[in-house]
Amino acid sequence: MFRSLSGYKAQYHDLTLLVAEEFNEWRVMLYSPGMTIHGTRQFSVAKAQDHAVTLARNYVHERKHADLPVLPGVEWQPAGAEDWLVWC
């Protein structure tokens, strides 16, 4: 099923961070070409955004060992009509 995304998105280096509202929870996802990370569901948008940034930092700097600067924060934008999710 295709569904328009209601939530927020941001960039952390080459990762796109998404937090999407789903009923009374927020779903957390990070993706880049060839890779998707599903975070744990959160009960507030602030916690979901913090969780997404923490996952992104851990992935980029600890798992990939990328030689990139640690970004102090990200700029969250509302998800638009071009953002879609596929629920299976």
What would you report as the Rg, rounded to the nearest angstrom? 13 Å
Share of helix among residues? 10-25%
Oligomer: single chain
**Which band does the percent of strand residues land in?**
35-45%
Low-confidence stretches: none
Number of helices: 1
What class, by secondary structure content? Answer: alpha+beta
* Order of secondary-structure elements: EEEEEHEE
Q: How many β-strand stretches?
A: 7
What is the rounded distance between the termini? 7 Å
Biggest sheet: strand arrangement: 5-4-3-2-6
| Silhouette | globular
Largest sheet: 5 strands, antiparallel
Mean pLDDT: 87
How does this model look, in words?
The protein has about 90 residues and is α+β, with helices and mostly antiparallel strands. About 20% of the residues lie in helices and about 40% in strands. The protein is built from 1 helix and 7 strands, in the order βββββαββ. The strands form 2 sheets. A 5-stranded antiparallel β-sheet has the order 5-4-3-2-6, with helices on one face. A two-stranded antiparallel sheet has the order 1-7. A hairpin with a 2-residue loop joins strand 3 and strand 4 (about 25-30). The chain is globular. The mean pLDDT is about 85.
Short description:
The protein has 88 residues and is an alpha+beta fold. The chain is 22% helix and 39% strand. Strands 5-4-3-2-6 form a five-stranded antiparallel beta sheet, covered by helices on one side. It has a two-stranded antiparallel sheet with strand order 1-7.
